[in-house]
Amino acid sequence: MSVDKLPSGRFRARVKRGRHVVSTKTFDRKKDALAWEAAERVRLAGGFDPRLGKSTTVAAAVAEFLSDREGRVAASTVATDRRFLNALPVSVSRSPVGELTHAEVERYIHRLRVSAGTKRRALISLSAFFGWAVRRGFRTDNPAKGVKVAGEAPNHAATMATWDDVEMIAAQINDPGYRLYVRVMAYTGLRPGEMRALRVGDVSGGRLRVLRSHPEGHPEKDVKNHQARFVPVAAAVRGDLEQHMSERSPRERVFTAPGGGLIASRNLRRDVRWSVIAPELRLYDLRHVAVSEWVRAGVPLATVRTWAGHSSLSVTSRYTHVAGSEDVAALELVNGRAGVTRGSQATQGSQETVR
């Protein structure tokens, strides 16, 4: 047995490969130490042991999952996962992690008395947890996959709102800083955290250097997917942005709240009466406006992906639905071909008539 009782009364589990200890962890209960040791052995062997899923509760597995997440993902992501997973009902948390079914996960999500958006975020945490459970050998499938949330948005982030719409919205905002913040976000597609972290020194030569993000309520960190990028500033806002920064030092933030400090989305929405001037748009939709307009303008998807900081081209492809951009381009090709055949015949006939 590779579980020892320490002088402190806790239990230390060790997993060896040959004569070498390759993994170790300490627990308050011997039962948890044994379960972890068994799971580690299965993981190292690359296999699956159904006994693990039956002997380990969801609550015990969640505690290990959250511990593993520390340092691997953003602290804000761990905090959100902890909030949702630690709030699981007793009927779920005490169930064996290997026996929870898709129907039970679906029932739990549907019974939550929260918005559709919050349900979707809870489902993301559950899916991440069960994905981890599969990799650790607790089960062979992810029961959170395929669960649908009532009132879910379509599977693309494109919006029919345009830069002209945003300009009309911005014209109704009295505070010049907030007004420029809304316009710059709509033309550059930066995320709210990236807008808060943007420094004057990051703006040069008509481009933004996006290196950091500052989520609300959390420390500043690298940008999402750790993909630093450059984003061009459209001429429509470049002059106003440069004038806005003209008397600021390179280390100062480009955008701050009217009284100084970081911009809080809730305060911005309240101060500009967002629900009145833009009832059909979320503040985050300004990012979608930028990406959608780039696609409408015919910017290559690979370039759009780089500017937006998307993790993959498949994410960017969700925006090709806007205004039938692909259909318009395809129709131009068809019309061009028609002009060579049928269209050219009509032209020739008309010329003969004139003669």
Automatic annotation (TrEMBL):
Pfam families membership: Phage_integrase
**What highest taxon heads this organism's lineage?**
Bacteria
Q: InterPro entries, per this entry?
A: CB (IPR044068), DNA_brk_join_enz (IPR011010), Integrase-like_cat_sf (IPR013762), Integrase_catalytic (IPR002104), Integrase_recombinase_N (IPR010998), Tyrosine_recombinase_XerCD (IPR050090)
Domain Core-binding (CB): start-end pairs? 56-134
Enumerate the UniProt keywords alphabetically: DNA recombination, DNA-binding
User: Do you know which SUPFAM superfamilies this protein is assigned to?
Assistant: DNA breaking-rejoining enzymes
Can you give the residue ranges of the Tyr recombinase domain? Answer: 156-332
Q: Which Gene3D superfamilies match?
A: 1.10.150.130, Intergrase catalytic core
Name the family: Belongs to the 'phage' integrase family.
- Name this protein carries in UniProt: Tyrosine-type recombinase/integrase
- Origin species, per record, is Brachybacterium rhamnosum
- Kindly list the organism's lineage: Bacteria, Bacillati, Actinomycetota, Actinomycetes, Micrococcales
